[in-house]
Amino acid sequence: MTKLSRTKPASCGSRRLAGCLAILAGVAMIATTTISAGAETLRVGKAGRDAFSFVPVDVGVRTGIFKNNGLDVEISSFGGDARVQQAMAADGIDIGLGSGPGLAFIAKGSPIKGIAAMAGPPLLFALVVRNDDTVKTVDDLKGRKVGVSTVGSVTSWIVSEVASQKGWGHSGIEQVTIGDDASRIAALKTKSFDAAIVNLAAALNYVQRGEGRILMRFGDLVKDFHIHVIFATDKAITEKADALKRFNKAWFETIAFMRAEKAKTVAIAAEVMGTDAATTAAIYDELMPMFSDHGRFDPKALAVLRRSFVEMKTLPQEPDMAKLTTEAFLPKQ
Description:
five-stranded mixed β-sheet, D-Maltodextrin-Binding Protein, domain 2, 42% helix, 13 helices, 10 strands
């Protein structure tokens, strides 16, 4: 019977110890370099910390979806669209999660571009008032002060659109800019104005505390719309094009995960938004339909935005929307 010969595994003898250690160190260095090269950092800014609209980036980070796409995502939160745009212009962030009306900043010269349409009709927001009957119906808002986040934000756009549809003109309701949702609720309580537009989570918490009520929701305000857009700076577009493609890919993988995994999504969202499980689950049910599964820009929605920029006197003339957006970074269908 023929004996099978066995090859001894390579080992490090005392004479070759230093050489083996050097080889191992070299292998470790190569591995570390490869890992670092594959995980690129993107700085992402949210126009609101508590809004469900921006929770997908948190879900994607916590579930490892962005990491699986070779990205380290650093998340910052800002009090409204204008501040996100300022952060991008100052190179403080690479990507901004903002509003469709925020596209007007590009026409004014902001060094950014919309790279994905992430949500449609304005399901996210609600208009809240105090319980003191200062405002009983929407008709009572004519000439009244309403709190919004920042100039050029979607909250500002909604107030103008309500006034316009009521026949009062876009300035028929006076707007007061006051930052994030918490600041608007606090100012409403101190009677700095008579109503405020806030995200649904803030509105439901306000009602649950017995401090006021929801006067109006905006799902039927306009059907063809892009309430939210993913923006990227011109610098990131030039220097991090591949990372932006991977970001959008991971974003829409996250949306698919959220649709399939309600319980896991609600658990993360509740922690991010500071809402209880029942409230968060209700918000999930109401708002998941607004998210796009592909990010492509709808010509009808862009037409609504284009016209509104002039009607609201944000811009002197309608811009070429093709110069404000690009689909070059979206996943191929």
